[in-house]
Amino acid sequence: MAEMIRAMGGEGQARREPGPLHTLLVALAVCGTCAAVVTASVVVLRPYQVANRQWDREMQVRALVAGLPGISDLVTEAGDARPDTRVVELATGAYATDVTAEQLLATSEDERESVRLPRERDLAGIGSRPRFAPVYVLEREGAVHTVILPVSGQGYLATMRGYLALAGDGGTIRGITFTEHGETPGLGAEIENPVWQRLWRGKRLRDEDGNVRVRVVRDAPSGPDAVHQVQGISGATKTGDGVSNLVRFWVGPDGFGPYLERLREGGAQ
Amino acid sequence: MSTSALRALARPIVDDNPVTMQVLGICSALAVTRRLDTALLMSVSVICVLTLSNVSISLLRNHLPRSIRLIVQITVIATLVTVVDQLLRAFAWELSRQLSVFVGLIVTNCIVLGRGDSFAMFHGARASALDGLGNGLGYALVLVLVASVRELLGSGSLLGVPVLVPRDAGGWYEPAALLLLPPSAFFLIGGLVWAVRSWKTQQVEAAEPVPEAAAPEPVR
């Protein structure tokens, strides 16, 4: 540090200070060059990153499926409990007929057709939601056993993306996992911790009147609402709120609500 | 490489190590040293950023008005860090997920701006490159040392390869879980600073002059 101070007082002081025009030109040239370098690197590397993210997501879905309780019952003679990918039109909650899963998954999230969300309904802070979303469905004896929904929402600093696994009744959580987030390591990033993720198991999304009640709370869940509550991570209140909002948004009317409604009635067609 | 160049390169590795001597770059040194692989990747990233930023700043130094020099330096550093971050996301996806925000935070690593403003502003590109490389290696050395101890004693492995097989995997070793927590890196870096200064006593700073106890002025 002393060296730094000495150096600053040394040679630098002797130099003639250039005029404001020169200063402005240097600033513009530096900004222009830096912007060009950053843009080029982002554009050139994007395809690799998209491929990485897709691979990662696939691994996460498989890991989530493999970690679900009772999944070993689902392993068929084929030897694999691989979920079936389907496309849901979020507004109606019906399976889409004109978009196939392959078509949808070949595009990145940013490229998909989306609908703007008015601010008061944008609980997860995502600005807009896609028109079509993939869901992963596991069936047993003709009935839906588990559905896995892709979810996303604003965390403390960055968007969190993950998957929410629900039982076939569309109302009970089987698991949650996060594939992408920018939360603080050691604090908010503990949402990746399987121990914390297991706290979500068996939680009910709604009360008897159909209101969405599930949320992350500060203290250990207690009382009649315990079945809707998940204990948050110490020091990561914003992350907890973000996860709460994310889950509440995606099971609500602007997310997969209509689809879950159909599941409850036993007829998502 | 000439002897003087070699000396310029070696000096920041032990004698004037940015972490143990100047106690800079501590934040990331705590955060990424839980495992050796993340520490190595972080080291490589910092070495690249530091060397390239030193060279860029050195090349710009004669055209840089003093009034905007810091912001220009930060812009250059932030650009390099963004490019490195993008590269990691493209080619080292798993590890870059582990490093998360700490790659982006290289921008705020005092070593980078410190070397840029105190060295590269006054030296040619070649000398600045060597200085950047040397300081990067000095930082890397500390990171690798701390991460090796933490991973070996905390998880019983090195680079993910089991060395001391932990008890719950059928071995004999009881992992010291404390070493997985961030504070343990403080202890290790503190111990390292002590060890280096016991060895190289000229690094010990003179005791700060104790200000004479004066009665505080009454606040009106």
Keywords:
heterodimer; A: 269 residues; alpha+beta; 6-stranded antiparallel β-sheet; two-stranded antiparallel sheet; 7 helices; 10 strands; 35% helix; disordered N terminus; B: 220 residues; mainly alpha; two-stranded antiparallel ribbon; 60% helix; 2% strand
Description:
The complex is a heterodimer of chains A (269) and B (220). With 269 residues, chain A is of the alpha+beta class. Helices cover 35% and strands 22% of the residues of chain A. Chain A has a domain of 182 residues. Chain A contains seven helices and ten strands. Chain A has a six-stranded antiparallel beta sheet. In chain A, strands 3-4 form a two-stranded antiparallel sheet. Chain B has 220 residues and is mainly α. Chain B has one domain. In chain B, strands 1-2 form a two-stranded antiparallel sheet. In chain B, helix 3 packs antiparallel against helix 8, helix 4 crosses helix 7 and helix 7 packs antiparallel against helix 8. The longest helix of chain B is centred in the middle third of the chain and has 31 residues. Chain B is globular. The model of chain B has no long low-confidence stretch (mean pLDDT 85). Chains A and B meet through helix 1 and helix 3 of A and helix 4 and helix 7 of B.
In short:
With 269 residues, chain A is of the alpha+beta class. Chain A has helices spanning 2-9, 11-14, 20-67, 101-105, 194-198, 237-251, 257-264; strands at 84-89, 94-95, 114-116, 128-130, 132-140, 143-154, 159-167, 173-180, 215-217, 229-231.
